[in-house]
Design goal:
Layout lengths: L10 H7 L6 H23 L1 H9 L5 H14 L1 E2 L11 E2 L2 E2 L14 E5 L6 H10 L5 E7 L5 E7 L7 H9 L7 H54 L2 H6 L2 H23 L1 H19 L1 H7 L3 H38 L1 H6 L3 H53 L5 H20 L3 H19 L5 E2 L2 E2 L23 E9 L10 E9 L3 E5 L6 H8 L7 E6 L2 E2 L5 H6 L1 E4 L8 E2 H5 L8 H10 L3 H6 L1 E4 L2 E4 L4 E2 L6 H14 L4 E5 L7 H14 L4 E5 L3 H4 L4 E6 L2 E6 L1 H7 L1 H11 L15
Parallel strand pairs: 11-20, 11-21, 14-19, 19-20
Antiparallel strand pairs: 1-3, 2-4, 4-5, 5-6, 7-8, 9-10, 9-12, 12-13, 15-18, 16-17, 21-22
Length: about 750
């Protein structure tokens, strides 16, 4: 996985970009396509110069112009531009100081013979341009006094691009008539259209292949984040707002995706285009290039300032999104209460207030983005103005040909177009880095551990897709809580459990009773290792459960909670959740034990025009009553056939008749299993082999009901004030309360 230095530039963004490494083939092909975009863009822009030459030249053809430019470069001289062909020979306007022939030639002299043959100016230009290699030619030169002399001139070697240019020129008409010039223009424009079409395909390849790599990489990141969130300790989930977590999946991964698309799209493609055109401008006139770049340092400063502003605003926006989603999710989940208390208007106002901070942060981002391009365009206009003034001065002094001047201006504009498009790139990368930090703040949290090692993520285990059952945990003797103390991380000063000692023999049913908040549910949560004790140990057959494989430990426990969870799926999938491959008969048997088989067989659901029924019916928590959800959860726990059962108010949301049937089923299900029952109903508690009485996090008494009524005044008070919920227990009438 690619990572940046701990204090490196765009640290979190580059770390997220590392998820594209497994998909680098598509990425590399996309980057090669970006190189193609640059090449063909440069070619398209370069066509401007010959087009201008064709339109504005009076005497030279495009082939003559190409030959003259090459002959000038090879001789190191300046030749008359766009003049009628001179039959007397080739006149030299100037001899450059770096010319290899500076000792043999002077400005104003005329070459009248090359290698013993005479010819016109255009004939000599073509000969000098096309002469192969680093050759020497013998010439006859007439000086300003009309005297002739022989000289040997050295020609510089051709540049690497000359064969391609000469080959392309051979396809163009060489005549100088209006018809020939029109045909030349037609040929050049046809080539431009062809090249632009190829460039468009390269652009598609760049964006498409990069998108494939990015989408696959973001899928990996999203999957790893989801897996890691599911494996974080319950203590983290109990303090983390769900809306903030969902915001990281929806908003932050989206921002990172936009940033990576920008990195391997614009950040690669646009600078390559700019470099290609800069190289072309350099070939035309390097002095003009220097003048055009005067605004570049200021533009870099502007981009960095804007980027920092966006990063801060994006961090605030992401946090605001989390709070907003959390607020809305809570209100939608409790919509019955909202409506029952006529709070629709008040909640709408609270939502608007929560959204104002998000609006301010998003507006800040948009305003900075809106300012980026105009600021760069302003700098570009200043650079082009300086460019035009300098170039115009050289044209007026006949130091620069007009078509080269106009071509250079067009090239400069073509350079600034990619730079303008890059104006908001840094902003996007900074926003992506801020979002990436929020993702890795979660990914860097330690997951639940087993046997001292971090649990391997599901996506990294090949067998995860098959969903096999966890290896069964051997359990032969007893479960024992030894001096267990626990405080929730959110309130470490308050002990929820205080030196709890409890031994539960294998096959025994024990009921945990006590007032709300006394630690009953927390005690069984520690058995499931949802939390770790602050001190003390929990042992199964004298083995500390922290040394046991976490999957095996939880696979040995069937849990039914007061708030029964039903997922949006089929009835069969809900009952068989976590049980691995099971047959339809096993699912039906579990449903019978939970007394829900009749309801399932009558169930018929119509959704989006599709009708499903029975065990294949697709249900949600909203479509089932509390009792139905509870019995599905009970069937789910029974199907796993666990040696340990935890029933946390498992019958609290069913009617009396359903409770009676479930209790009868539980008598059979609990036989031979170790069962923890948390309940307030006497009918549930009376079936327990032992009752453990808790108060303020302490275990104050254990025993059977009739024994505790006599020996534990606190339990007797619970029986009279809380336990029965309107039931009439045989031993209650004579309870001595003291």
């Amino acid at each position: 996985m690619m990572s940046a230095r701990e204090d490196g530039f765009l640290r979190y963004f580059l770390r997220a970009a590392g998820y594209l490494h497994p998909h680098r083939r598509s990425l590399v092909l996309g980057l090669l396509a970006a190189l193609g975009v640059s090449v063909f863009y440069t070619f398209s822009v370069s066509s401007i110069v010959p087009v201008l030459k064709i339109i504005f030249a009076e005497h030279e053809s495009i082939v003559d112009w190409l030959h003259r430019a090459e002959a000038q470069r090879r001789l190191g001289v300046t030749l008359p531009p766009d003049v009628p062909d001179d039959p007397r020979g080739l006149t030299l306007l100037d001899v450059r100081p770096d010319s290899p022939n500076a000792e043999h030639l002077q400005a104003g002299e005329r070459i009248v013979m090359i290698d013993g043959a005479g010819g016109s100016a255009y004939d000599f230009i073509a000969l000098l341009a096309q002469q192969g290699g680093e050759a020497a030619v013998d010439v006859v030169v007439v000086n300003l006094d009309g005297q002739s002399r022989a000289a040997s001139l050295r020609l510089r070697p051709h540049k690497f691009w000359w064969p391609a240019a000469a080959s392309a020129a051979s396809w163009l008409p060489s005549g100088r008539s209006a018809v020939d010039r029109s045909n030349t223009l037609l040929a050049v424009m046809a080539a431009v259209v062809l090249v632009s079409t190829i460039g468009a395909f390269c652009r598609f390849g760049n964006e498409g292949l990069v998108a494939i790599a990015v989408q696959r990489g973001m899928h990996d990141l999203r999957t790893e984040l989801a897996d890691h969130v599911l494996r974080l300790p319950l203590g983290w989930h109990s303090t983390q707002p769900p809306g903030d977590t969902l915001s990281r999946f929806a908003q932050d991964i989206g921002k990172v995706e936009v940033g990576i698309n920008t990195l391997f799209g614009k950040v690669v493609r646009e600078p390559l285009k700019a470099v290609g055109v800069l190289a072309l401008t350099l070939l035309l006139d390097w002095h003009m290039l220097l003048i055009g770049m005067i605004g570049l340092p200021v533009g870099v400063v502007f981009i960095r300032i804007f980027g920092r502003m966006v990063k801060r605003a994006q961090r605030r926006a992401s946090q605001s999104w989390g709070r907003l989603l959390d607020h809305l999710g809570e209100r939608l989940a409790g919509i019955r209460v909202v409506k029952a208390f006529n709070m629709e208007g008040a909640e709408s106002r609270r939502f608007a207030a929560e959204g104002r901070e998000l609006t301010r942060a998003q507006t800040h981002i948009e305003l900075v983005d809106a300012a980026s391009s105009p600021a760069l365009e302003m700098l570009a206009s200043l650079a082009i103005a300086a460019f035009a003034l300098y170039g115009g001065h050289r044209v007026f002094n006949q130091e620069l040909e007009p078509h080269v001047f106009f071509g250079a201006i067009i090239c400069l504009g073509a350079v600034f177009d990619p730079i303008r498009k890059m104006g908001n790139v840094y902003n996007r990368l900074q926003a992506a880095d801020a979002s990436g930090k929020r993702l890795f703040d979660i990914l860097d949290l330690p997951a639940e551990t087993e046997a001292g090692l971090t649990v391997a993520p599901t996506w990294a285990r090949p067998e995860a897709a098959a969903g096999p059952l966890a290896p069964q945990l051997a359990f032969d003797e007893a479960i024992e809580f030894r001096d267990v103390c626990f405080s929730y991380p959110s309130d470490p000063s308050r002990r929820v459990l205080d030196r709890v000692n409890l031994r539960v023999e294998r096959g025994q049913m024990i009921a945990l009773v006590g007032p709300n908040g006394c630690g009953k549910t927390t005690l069984v949560s520690l058995l499931l290792r949802f939390f770790e004790p602050d001190s003390g140990t929990i042992r199964i057959d004298d083995r500390d459960i922290r040394t046991l494989p976490l999957a095996a430990l939880r696979g040995a426990i069937g849990l039914v909670t007061q708030d029964a969870v039903v997922f949006t799926d089929t009835i069969r999938a809900n009952i068989s959740y976590g049980a691995g491959p099971v047959s339809d008969e096993q699912v039906a048997a579990a449903a019978r034990l939970a007394h829900i088989e009749d309801f399932i067989e009558r169930l018929r659901v119509e959704q989006n025009g599709t009708v499903s029924s029975g065990y294949g019916a697709r249900v949600t928590a909203r479509t089932l009553s509390g009792g139905q959800r509870q019995r599905i959860a009970l069937a789910r726990a029974v199907l796993r056939n666990p040696p340990i059962l935890i029933l946390d108010e498992a019958t609290s949301q069913v009617d009396v008749e359903s409770e009676r049937k479930i209790q009868e089923a539980l008598d059979d299900v609990a036989r031979g299993r170790t069962t923890f029952v948390i309940a307030h109903r006497f009918s549930t508690i009376a079936r327990a082999d032992r009752i453990a009485v808790m108060n303020d996090g302490r275990l104050i008494a254990t025993g059977r009901h009739d024994e505790l009524v006599r020996t534990c005044p606190f339990y007797a008070t619970l029986v009279q004030t809380q336990l029965l919920h309107g039931e009439l227990a045989p031993a209650v009438e004579s309870v001595p309360v003291s």
